[in-house]
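fyi for ur records
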Amino acid sequence: MSILSGIVIILLLFGLSLLFPFLSFLIPVYKFRKVWGLSLREKVVINAAPVIVIGVFMPQLLFFYIGLFCVVEFLYAKLRDRNWKTFDKIVVVSLAASIGLVLGSSFAVRYVTGNEELLKTISALLKVDPEKFAILIGEGTKSLISAMFLSAMFCTFLSYLFMEHASYLDWDISYWWLILYIAPFFLDRFWLPGNYYIINIKEMGLVIFAFYGMKSIYEALCYNFPNFRYRYLFHFLSCYVTIAIPVFSFIVGGVAAFDRRVLHFRKKS
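which gave:
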């Protein structure tokens, strides 16, 4: 792989991830598999060039590139040899990456809402009244932190899944992360109802264990139906359940965090 082709591919993948956010994991996975094995000089050039190009031509998107993709890649490398539970690593990386996404989104919101001509142009493209569009942006910012954490979690989870799929069934999480949901739940219910930060933190806790619940559902299906050959269908089913009933997936993930064996219904012969 030449340096130029690596730079072009990363920029193309970045553009693709902007159009289709669910493909955002492709950049970290590509860099893990294709760039890590290069010489130090090649790695520096391939990593620095996209930052420069984006900074020159799309400076408002630089926060997203650095805050998500660079953070995921950097922390994955740093935590790879740490003796942590895999899902704990995913949560830590996602929390760090969401900071960059929140900063980038806040900048983008202020840039759009503060530029009347740009607001009118975007509204015209979307065929929406500018005032209604501004209201929609305002409503969207109410869940900005949890939404950006969801994006970071999605990218990080899939990056780990593609890089460490062989150990997927053995991924564990510390049940202490449940505090991110339990504490805000009671604070919102009894002391600080409707607080912006408390609501977003509670949603982050829900996201964490919904994702772990998805993994736990897959594990339960694999354990209880060991002779089923088409395990990709288990991936599809666990993903579908998590999207359709996130609360159910959250409950499964919360229970499995204490003991994964409770989902192993089939008795060993």
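The longest helix spans residues 196-224. thats all i got for now
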